[in-house]
């Protein structure tokens, strides 16, 4: 009797359960971490009160709205990739089982962090609140140190050669002008 269909069925069932768990965990982490850093903390700082636009330029307010919109889309896309392709979450306690190198990750190694910064700086421009810009700078410094001291060493250990190749071709903070896979 051929057992391969049964093995395949169990594997697909296990992958489905893992994916559902990853989606739930990722959703919770999305609200807890970026929701706090890019939503609740900026609200605590400025209560989302609209001030005069920086330097009197209304165009900066429009740019802020665009940064918020783009940041939100990139954040959701990156989180979905972690759950659906990485079969894990961005949370260190439930890391992905596979290295994610598609979507926004083809251009920059840290699209989630850049999306959060885009949300914070977008709010700064939209609301005309310099305190939010300072918050964004502080958040970037914390993120940068976390990436250097924990995240990258962990990824090197978990994904070895794959991460070495990925990090050799995709920059940490400033997105590439072209997709990494288009250049290979």
Helix/strand order: HHHHH
Number of domains: 1
CATH topology: Four Helix Bundle (Hemerythrin (Met), subunit A)
Number of strands: 0
The share of residues in extended strands comes to: under 5%
Count of separate DSSP helical elements:
5
Structural class by helix and strand composition: mainly alpha
Summarize the main sheet.
none
Oligomer: single chain
What spatial form do the alpha-carbon principal axes imply?
A: globular
Low-confidence stretches: none
Radius of gyration using CA atoms only: 19 Å
CATH architecture type? Up-down Bundle
Question: How confident is the prediction overall: mean pLDDT?
Answer: 91
In the CATH scheme, the class would be Mainly Alpha
Give the termini separation.
44 Å
Helix content: over 70%
């Amino acid at each position: 009797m051929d057992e391969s269909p049964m093995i395949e069925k169990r594997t697909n069932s296990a992958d489905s359960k893992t994916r559902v768990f990853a989606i739930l965990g990722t959703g919770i982490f999305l609200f807890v971490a970026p929701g706090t850093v890019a939503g609740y903390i900026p609200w605590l700082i400025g209560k989302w009160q609209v001030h005069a636009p920086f330097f009197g330029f209304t165009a900066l307010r429009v740019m802020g709205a665009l940064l918020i919109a783009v940041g939100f889309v990139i954040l959701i896309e990156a989180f979905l990739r972690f759950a659906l392709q990485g079969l894990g979450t961005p949370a260190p306690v439930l890391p992905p089982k596979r290295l994610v190198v598609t979507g926004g990750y083809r251009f920059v190694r840290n699209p989630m962090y850049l999306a959060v910064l885009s949300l914070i700086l977008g709010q700064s421009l939209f609301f005309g609140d310099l305190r939010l810009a300072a918050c964004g700078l502080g958040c970037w410094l914390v993120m940068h140190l976390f990436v250097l001291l924990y995240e990258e060493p962990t990824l090197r250990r978990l994904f070895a050669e794959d991460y070495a190749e990925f990090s050799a071709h995709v920059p940490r903070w400033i997105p590439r002008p072209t997709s990494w896979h288009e250049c290979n």
